[in-house]
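Posted in: Protein Modeling Q&A

I'm a second-year student putting together a small comparison for a lab meeting, and my supervisor asked me to include a predicted structure for (African queen) hypothetical protein. I've never done this before, so apologies if this is the wrong subforum. The sequence is pasted below exactly as I got it from our records. If anyone can share the structure token output, I'd also love a short note on what stands out.
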Amino acid sequence: MFSKTLEFDYQIYTADLLADKAIIPSPPHWPREYDSQAHRTLHSRFPTAPPRESNNVIMQYLSRDKVNVRDIISTVSQDRIPRDWKVTVGVAKEREMKKRKARFFGKLVLEMRLFQVATENNIKHVFKFIPHQTMTKTEDDLFKHLLKISEMSSTEDRSAVFMSMDFSSWCTRFRYEGVTPLFEELDRLLGVNNVMAYTQKFPLESSSYFKTGSAYLVRGTMACRAAVPDDSMGQRPGWKG
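Accepted answer (user: helix_wrangler)
Welcome! Here is the predicted structure, written out as tokens:
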């Protein structure tokens, strides 16, 4: 069992934010996302909502008077997360051009996006002390690493070859029971409580939405490719697989 050894890094690097540009407005702002004239036609009034929020993470980050990552981490640690933060919108990846089989990526509100960036950044700090991991290596660095250990493992009478394998949907196979003990150790190592461990709880507590082309409201249990059949949706390791 670890004790506090490292300091949790609350710094947010804008380059990490730019890796995924899109976020979602918090739910109170959602009426601004839809046609106000259509709302008036259907409900005889215009929608009421706070001013529109940008869907661009950097623009919203810069527009805020104050963005305190330490406060966000503290809110998560103390289990005081507002309901408006517990939302994930699944959006089909546009570059795949697959209408029915496209993979989805999850868009979060700004606060949970910052939480994600902060936790991944701190795991990255821990990974540098694990010499054989390859999660933080670039493709070029990984190739050089595999070539080096292949040469070191070869002898005059035999040759050793090491290769990299990319498992299909590997990052979606993680479950709360399997990874939470490891995350709890990372929390202790960084001197925080219920921060890394919350990465697996978040999908279980969140509402998940998917965009659909249907114009009709579905009643009762949904049985389609966009419906989540159990509570396993969104579970993944605390780092990007």
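A couple of things worth pointing out for your meeting: The chain has a mean pLDDT of 79. The first helix runs from residue 14 to 18.
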